[in-house]
Each structure stands twice: as structure tokens, then as C-alpha cells.
Design a protein that fits this description.
This protein is an alpha+beta fold. It is built from 15 helices and twelve strands. The chain has three domains: 220 residues, Porin chaperone SurA, peptide-binding domain (Triger factor/SurA peptide-binding fold); 115 residues, Roll (Chitinase A, domain 3); 105 residues, Chitinase A, domain 3 (Roll). 41% of the residues lie in helices and 21% in strands. Helix 6 crosses helix 15 and helix 11 packs across helix 15.
Amino acid sequence: MRRLKRVRQFAFATIPVFCLALPIVAQAATGTTGKTAKTQAQFGDGIAAVVNTEIITIRELDNRMASLRISGQGGSSRDQVLQSMIDEKLMKQDAERLNVAVSDAQLDQVLATIAQRNSIPVERLKEEVSRSGMKWDEYLKNLRSEVMMDQLRNSIVQSRISVTESDVDAFLKQHPTGVLPQKEVAYIPPPPQKQVVIERSFEPKAVALQHIFIRVPDNASEDVAAAARKKANDAMAKIRRGNSFAAVAKEYSEGPEAGDGGQLGIRLFEDWPSLFVNATRNVADGRTTGVFKAPNGFHILKVLERRGLVKENKRVVNVQPPPPPRPQFSPMEIAAKQDGPVNVTESNVRHILVKKSPVVSDQQAYERIQSLHNRLSNGEAFEDVARKFSQDTSAPLGGDIGWIAPGVADPEFEKAVANLQPGQISNPVRSAFGWHIIEVLDRRTGDKQPEIRRMLARQTLYEQRAEPIFTDWLQQLRSQSFIDNRLSGSISARN
């Protein structure tokens, strides 16, 4: 049951992330032959599997594995992911045979729903997808494919399932909230487990240094000492501006190693002057000290690297394992379990829609909706304008789309509805579908908990009955196909 539910709701999951999560519902089909092991050398053609007349490449398999890892769904093995891709290919081929397709309007509606579920406008959805590392065109292609296969599943399953009102009544007698009891089991934390922890520490023994030295002769005057300090500070300023330490050393240092960029080599700590050890004690590798004074002049040191011993300390600790994923209740389930009524305010709405399209730009759609708004302002009846010019399926009804509850419409459309009083007509409103003029006809508030519980009960019964039907259908699809799985070495021919 979870497989169908997960796929059906996949398009509405939170971002980041889109990768197909098709059900891994069974192992290799029966009747396979040639199960001898194949070596990696046999993948030289780059083909992971042949499904009827189409192929799945090694690159496609690797990309799917990477996408699953990025989206936090990387628990499946390579064999399982390939089997899922084979099933996906079979389903796509059957969808083409049955002329199952997804229109641009349907895709726009799914995008609007995804944005709404993530509480972001549709415009930001593209940014979020890009931030997750996926190209927008690839996202749309995968989304269209997922919706198409969802439609195929529904077309296969719906004609074979009947959930009657009597079935729903019987279910609610056992589960009055409409929520299955296994989702309400109390959480019992798993017992602690013993685990070996290895603690590593680094004990430095030697350090490599670079050096800039500005000499101050014995018994030098204050002016000479001040000039030396200024020279050291000038050198430090150049280093801070991004000049290389070696170049500054060659230009400013008066030490014998200046010609070699100030390189002093690497030595054990006890072989360095204590002044140098103390000055660099808290300086990270690759960083530089400030100017510091010594009896013979001014110094600047750069720590190139430290070398030493890595010590390991093993100990056994009690670790509390992470809790298993707890059931996540949807807003509808939360409302169904709520004590007392679930009051919902619905709005009776009608609208006029002008769609964007490849041949109608957003600006052209706006100009068109603005001209229709002017007609309404000049006294034309809303229903007449909607019937003549609206590009929505509600046009024959004068634009009337009935009662809508919060959370079911495009976010921008819903926001405009919420800001209107009954009898009020909006200015042009932009949504994922195009430009709208909206009128709220009426509002009502009532307890919707009984309807919510019946809806959940019907959905649960449908899913329980759909699972075996879908599994049988997919198994039959496999048995009627030629599948050469080169990862497992199995070949399944058509029955």
C-alpha cells in the first residue's frame, strides 16, 4: 500500500528534490534464463538493461543513483534501482500504447500544487529546484513522466475497484476517525547499543617555517629601531594585501635565507628557538604571525606545515540509535483526529481565465485580461464575459467553479479570494495558469470533519484494494515483455 501512496503523492513532496521514486515491488520476473555471472567488462557497451526495444544505459543508472542520494533516498541497492527503472520503462511503454499523456495545463496545475505544499510561490519553485542541483528542464521532464505514470496506474486500478458507501460505513465503525490504528501506535524508543568509538588526536612534533627578518644592530638609536619597525610593518602590509610571503621575503628580509623566499625548512620543536615556537603556537598551518620583536630585530613567520603523530584511543560507549521514522499525519488526518468540530470557511467563486501559452506571452495575456476587466467595469455581466472569453472549463457555467476550501487552489488565486468580500470583483490576478478575474459570490462556514473522515476512509479502502491489483498488473506486464537485465545476468522473454 505504501508504494502506491508514495508514488501518487510524490509530486507534492517537499523540495529539494525531484527524482522518480517508482515502486520496487518484486524481484526479477519468472522464467529467466542465462543467470551466469557477468563481469564488469561486459558493460563495455554502456547498457545496463534492454526493455523490449529500448535500453537503460549505465550512465542513466548512475545518474538515478546519484539523484536518490542527493534527495536522501539512497537506501536502495544498485540492483533494486535498476529493477525500478525497468518497471518504469515498461509502464511508459504501456502508457504510450494506451495514449496516456499529460497536457501542459495538467503540468501547470501540478506545479502550482507543489508550490502550495511547500508554501512558496510558483516563481520560486524554479529557484529551489536549481538550488537542489537539478536543471529545470530535467525537473519538468521527470515530473511529467511521474504524472503520466500516476494516470496510468489510476486508469489500470480504478476500473477494477469499487468502494461503496456501505464499505465506508463499515470502515468507520471500526475506525471512527478514518485513520488506521497502526499510525497511532505509541512510540517505543529502541534500546541503547554498544559501539566502539575511535578518538583520534594529532600531536605535532615538527614544524616548517618561512621567515622575514629585519635586523636592528646592537646599541642602535631609536631612529634606527623605528625605521626597522616601519620596514617590517610595510612587509606585513604587503602580505596582508595578498602578496606571496616568498616575494616579500626576497624584497625585505635581511636574513641569510631571504634569497630562498625565507625558507627555513622543517625541524623538531626542540631544535627551533623558543621565541619561534611560542610565536607560532596558535598559528594555523598556512597562516602568518604578526610582526614581533626580538633583541636582534623584528621577525615575521609563516607556518607552512606541522608533522607529528596521530594517536588513537578506542573506547566502548552506549549509543542511542536514531528513532525509526514516525508516522507523519497529513493535515486531513490531523483534522479527522481532532476533538470537536473542524470548522472550514469555503468561498463560492467564479472566475475568468486567460492562459499563457507558447504563442501568447505573459504580457499579451495580461493585456487581454485587462480588456475583459474593462468590459466588466462598463457594466457587462460577469457570466456573459466568462462564457464568451474565459479559457477555463468553467466557461459554459459562467465561470462558476463552486465552493472551494483553503489549501486546494493556486496560492496566488487563493490569496486573492481571501482578500475579497462577497459580491466583490478582483483586479487581474496572476497564477501558474495565467491571468484571472475573480468574483466571490458567497461564503459559508461549517463542520467538515464528517466529510473528511469519510474521504480518508474511502482513500484507505481504495489503496488497500489497489495494491494487489497494481502488483498483478505489473507482473503481467513483465511477463509479456523482453527484459535483458545485464546487471544481474537475467533474461526474461515474452510468454
